[in-house]
Amino acid sequence: MDGLHTGADDTWEVAGRRFRSRLIVGTGRYKDLEETARAIEASGAEIVTVAVRRVNLSDPKAPMLQDYVDPKRYTYLPNTAGCHTAEEAVRTLRLAREAGGWNLVKLEVLGPPPLLYPDMRATFEAAEALLKDGFQVMVYCNDDPIAAKRLEEMGCCAVMPLGAPIGSGLGIQNPVMIRAIVEQAKVPVLVDAGVGTASDATVAMELGCDAVLMNSAIAHARDPVRMARAMKAAVEAGRLAYLAGRMPKKYAADPSSPLTEGLIR
Amino acid sequence: MTATIAITVNGERREIPAPATVADLLARIGLDPRKVAVERNLEIVPRSTYATTALAAGDRLEIVHFIGGG
């Protein structure tokens, strides 16, 4: 190991694919596609989330995401953002599978604003339909250990509880439940949503998550490319700290310098 | 005189010369078939069949692509 690197052997696997980077980044909300590309590059991410939307028929030659973020270099993870029913989510991802030619997807079925909290009943329904149709489903969910377990047992290839509402930047509000989900899981656990700054990503990794997924924390930073670098370092630091095993917490002082021997009198 | 048919593409009504396939429609709009996915009357049209899938009057098509998202 050298510097911040956790080592080439520290990889994680989802749906039979192996990754070194434990940071998954979104591709939305940037100033332009050029900035999107630079921020993603700086983040070191190997997986990027993407949305599926109608082509703008009045401007068919408009630059497309693929022209800036090469799908051969990055694993595209199509999402179902904006879907509020299972039916919409399944329809969206069937189109995504045809557009991208692969079956690894991020399922999110959301309740209404202002919280956009996961609608778990609709999420279960959509997950079942997608799994039956041969998709590999990484699923955004509540910070609910029972729900996470059920999704895993159904066959979802990763569970992704929220740290806080989407785009809120509030950080990990629920470390105890995230930890509980991590401890019981047999599939990768990712914190998805809620990260606001680098220390939040570190907290998620220190809790034992396999990876962290974020978008706004980078895209809405004053300097997104610099924040992408910060997030890369933060995820690596959190992972290293998790592997290293933190010292126990104590409720009294325990000095590092000897207090009994060799003191000048 | 060329016959035309009316179809709906991404919610917009369009008149196109008939006969026409999905591939013809994409070329007419100016889209790279490798960068989009097409749904016709709620059924996915596999990319390999764009050139052989004929459009009919009243068809409802969705043409989508990947954009930035979280």
From TrEMBL, chain A:
CDD domains: ThiG. The keyword Transmembrane does not apply. The active site is at K106. Catalyzes the rearrangement of 1-deoxy-D-xylulose 5-phosphate (DXP) to produce the thiazole phosphate moiety of thiamine. Sulfur is provided by the thiocarboxylate moiety of the carrier protein ThiS. In vitro, sulfur can be provided by H(2)S. It is found in: Cytoplasm. It catalyses: [ThiS sulfur-carrier protein]-C-terminal-Gly-aminoethanethioate + 2-iminoacetate + 1-deoxy-D-xylulose 5-phosphate = [ThiS sulfur-carrier protein]-C-terminal Gly-Gly + 2-[(2R,5Z)-2-carboxy-4-methylthiazol-5(2H)-ylidene]ethyl phosphate + 2 H2O + H(+). This is Thiazole synthase. Residues 14-258 form the Thiazole synthase ThiG domain. Homotetramer. Forms heterodimers with either ThiH or ThiS. The gene is thiG. The lineage of its organism: Bacteria, Pseudomonadati, Pseudomonadota, Alphaproteobacteria, Acetobacterales. It comes from the Bacteria. PANTHER family: THIAZOLE SYNTHASE. Pathway: Cofactor biosynthesis; thiamine diphosphate biosynthesis. Keywords: Cytoplasm, Schiff base, Thiamine biosynthesis, Transferase. Its EC number is 2.8.1.10. It is an enzyme of class 2 (transferase). Pfam families: ThiG. 1-deoxy-D-xylulose 5-phosphate binds at G167, A193, G194, N215, S216. HAMAP family: ThiG (MF_00443).
TrEMBL record, chain B:
InterPro entries: Beta-grasp_dom_sf (IPR012675), Mopterin_synth/thiamin_S_b (IPR016155), Thi_S (IPR010035), ThiS/MoaD-like (IPR003749). Gene3D superfamilies: 3.10.20.30. The lineage of its organism: Bacteria, Pseudomonadati, Pseudomonadota, Alphaproteobacteria, Acetobacterales. NCBIfam families: thiS. This is Sulfur carrier protein ThiS. Signal peptide: none annotated. The gene is thiS. Pfam families: ThiS. Coiled coil: none annotated.
